[in-house]
Design goal:
The complex is a heterodimer of chains A (about 325) and B (about 325). Helix content of chain A is about 75%, strand content about 0%. By secondary structure, chain A is an all-alpha fold. In chain A, the strands form 2 sheets. A two-stranded antiparallel sheet of chain A has the order 1-4. In chain A, strands 2-3 form a two-stranded antiparallel ribbon. In chain B, strand 2 and strand 3 form a beta hairpin. Chain B has a two-stranded antiparallel sheet. Chain B has a two-stranded antiparallel sheet with strand order 2-3. Chain B contains 14 helices and 4 strands. Chain B is mostly helical and about 325 residues long. The mean pLDDT of chain B is about 85. Classes of the chains: A mainly alpha (about 325), B mainly alpha (about 325). At the A-B interface, helix 6, helix 11 and helix 13 of A face helix 6, helix 12 and helix 14 of B.
Chain lengths: ~325, ~325
């Protein structure tokens, strides 16, 4: 993961401080604090719960990392999650098989990813407005399909899938780990991964080097949306129902996780593991606030504050490292 | 005095900006004409005034956003800002019974949120869309927590006058729109601050190197955006006569669409406030027309999204055709 932190020869403490991102420090602090406040926090049931919630968030945050590495952004991720879940549910209700329903959601997600990608990669339009516009499209379609009501009563196979385990590990956690491994290999062990990082660094240089940079850029959005669309299956499995607006806000948590983890919106600077750190920090925060019975709408505010705190720590850390050098 | 034989006064008599505004005006008249053909009731004075009043609410949210976008930034928090300001103002009016406390609270809260946006962008070096996107969720979260599932309704009549009253036969929100539009226009075209905003939006590095205090100007732009969101919150509250935490969120997409349809470039450095007025009217007419054609309200997010995408594509096509721009 050499792409993460620039290696510099520094005194021991500066090196250590330079290596742990703000999210890591805050995560350790929060773990200690919540355990002190309520020992129930480290019970096995609660930790499994944290793992499950983190894995769901990671299904969005990991593809979001790839997109942000290209100096992009996907504000439509939450709306796509809702739309994709609705499509799976409606298809199942219409008598489709589970695989056919997932394939339909996959296809629709990939098409929307392609729409985002074409507008952003080929027409060089700003990602935040393009995805804000497609967010409206997706949310609208999900609302029109369902009339704004939740869809339930489809086959329990989805819920069974969500609740099943592999060697005592809940399946969603296994899937998130597998996704991390796959994207890690893609990003750090293939040429395509190099191109993805290079798009954020200098797309023109990549194009001049004879690489079809626009195509790679487009592929990132298609892949990202496809992954996000498929993870809707886990989301509707959790509650055994699909709600058209259930995903709204997930894009904020995913982007917050990526930024918390130390990935920057500039020059393709970032690392995949940062998303794991950030997602863990957000989930631990939410979980701890739940145990303290703090209102869920205030939890969003706390995520915002956590983000600002992490950014301040990272800024102070950079200054400290620079001064120690 | 010799006059060149090839002199053609037609194109030069109309600046590109004026031509663009005229084009939008023609578009509005065309759509309005088509809708009148479908339903003659559309062109009635009461419906037109009603629509202008709706458009003025949208414009107020979009006005500060226009200034920010011209200056090369973005404010995604305007809708949530309106929500929080309206909820706080409603609570202030309800508990004190004095509308002026509500006015002070809404304007104060709105301005403070804008100030926080500016600070985050200046000090934390966050990209504007990220900082204001975070603020969107923070403000909305505070509003939901503050309201705790309740709706505050029943404002005093003296306050509701701001939203429902008439002055010289014209609804008050339209007068407020005129004042805000005039103020923004003066600010943009008659003050150094305005020219510097265009400069910053066109080329921030050049502006910085030319001695424009970019950070201070940027802070002021976000404060103004928060201020107009606070004013919009008051008009909204007075019109709805109720505050609940869901009111502002659906306004973000239409507000951005109004700015873009109004011809303000997302890339900064060009655009004007009158365009945003026309953009807001155009969007309101579209929604009004959809209702007239019995299209369900669930389609509105789709339509707003489509309008945003079409507007940026049009902006791209036009800016490529315009000589001298990248």
């Amino acid at each position: 993961m050499s792409a993460s932190v620039p290696l510099q020869r520094k005194s021991g403490i500066a090196q250590l401080l330079g290596a742990i991102p703000g999210a890591g420090l805050l995560l350790i602090l929060m773990l200690a604090l919540f355990t002190l406040v309520n020992p129930r926090f480290v019970s096995q049931t609660n930790l499994v719960n944290v793992g499950l919630q983190t894995s769901l968030l990671l299904m969005i945050a990991l593809p979001m990392t790839l997109i942000i590495l290209t100096e992009g952004l996907d504000l439509s991720a939450g709306a796509l999650l809702g739309l994709s879940g609705v499509i799976v549910a409606e298809a199942l209700l219409a008598g489709w098989g589970v695989f056919a329903a997932c394939a339909a959601a996959f296809a629709v997600s990939a098409v929307f990813g392609a729409l985002n990608g074409i507008l952003i990669a080929y027409l060089a339009l700003p990602a935040f407005v393009v995805t804000l516009g497609t967010m409206g499209l997706m949310q609208g379609i999900a609302l029109v399909l369902t009339n704004g009501d939740p869809v339930g009563g489809f086959t329990p196979a989805i819920e069974t899938f969500y609740r099943s385990q592999l060697w005592f590990v809940p399946l969603p956690i296994v899937i998130a780990v597998a996704l991390y491994a796959a994207l890690w290999l893609l990003l750090y062990r293939t040429r395509l991964g190099n191109y993805v990082i290079a798009i954020g660094g200098n797309k023109d240089a990549l194009r001049l080097a004879g690489i079809r940079a626009n195509l790679v850029h487009l592929a990132v959005y298609v892949l990202g949306s496809a992954i996000i669309g498929l993870s809707a299956v886990l989301l509707i499995g959790r509650t055994n129902s699909a709600h058209p607006t259930v995903g709204i806000g997930m894009e904020f948590e995913a982007i917050a996780a990526v930024v918390l983890g130390g990935t920057s919106f500039e020059k393709g600077q970032g690392w995949l593991f940062g998303a794991v750190l950030g997602a863990l920090a957000i989930t631990v925060l939410r979980n701890g606030l739940n145990i303290l019975s703090i209102d869920s709408s205030l939890q969003v505010v706390c995520i915002g504050l956590l983000l600002i705190l992490a950014l301040l720590i990272d800024q102070a850390r950079k200054q400290f490292v620079r001064r120690a050098a | 005095m010799t006059v060149p034989a090839t002199l053609d006064i037609r194109p030069s008599s109309l600046s590109p900006d004026a031509a663009a505004l005229l084009g939008r005006l023609v578009l509005i008249v065309l759509i309005a004409g088509a809708l009148t053909a479908v339903d003659p009731g559309f062109a009635s004075v009461s419906n037109l005034l009603n629509m202008l009043r709706q458009a003025s609410l949208l414009f107020l949210v979009a006005s500060g956003l226009t200034l920010v976008i011209i200056g090369g930034g973005l404010d995604l928090s305007v809708g949530a800002n309106l929500t929080l300001s309206a909820c706080l103002a409603a609570a202030a009016i309800k508990t004190t019974g004095n509308p002026w406390y509500g006015v002070a609270v809404a304007i104060g809260a709105g301005t403070l949120i804008g100030f926080a946006n500016g600070l985050m962008i200046n000090r934390l070096r966050l990209p504007p869309f990220l900082a204001t996107f975070g603020m969107l969720w923070v403000a909305q979260g505070i509003a939901y927590w503050f309201m705790a599932g309740q709706t505050i309704y029943g404002m005093p009549m003296s306050f509701r006058y701001f939203g429902t009253g008439f002055f010289l036969g014209v609804p008050l929100p339209i007068w407020i729109t005129l004042v805000v539009c005039l103020a923004c226009s003066t600010l943009l075209h008659r003050t150094t601050f305005g020219r510097e905003a265009y400069f910053m939006g066109a080329n921030q590095t050049a502006a910085l190197l030319s001695g424009v205090p970019v950070e201070r100007r940027r802070l002021l732009l976000y404060v103004l955006s928060g201020l107009t969101a606070g004013i919009a919150a008051l008009v909204y509250l007075a019109r709805l006569n109720a505050a609940e935490p869901g009111i502002g969120e659906p306004l973000l997409l239409p507000a951005i669409a109004a700015v873009l349809v109004g011809g303000t470039s997302l890339f900064g450095g060009s655009g004007n406030i009158v365009g945003t007025v026309l953009g807001a009217i155009l969007l309101t007419i579209i929604v009004n027309g959809l209702n007239l054609l019995n299209v369900a309200a669930t389609w509105h997010p789709f339509v707003n999204g489509a309008v945003v995408l079409i507007a940026i594509l049009a902006d791209l096509a036009l800016s490529r055709r315009r000589p001298g721009s990248s």
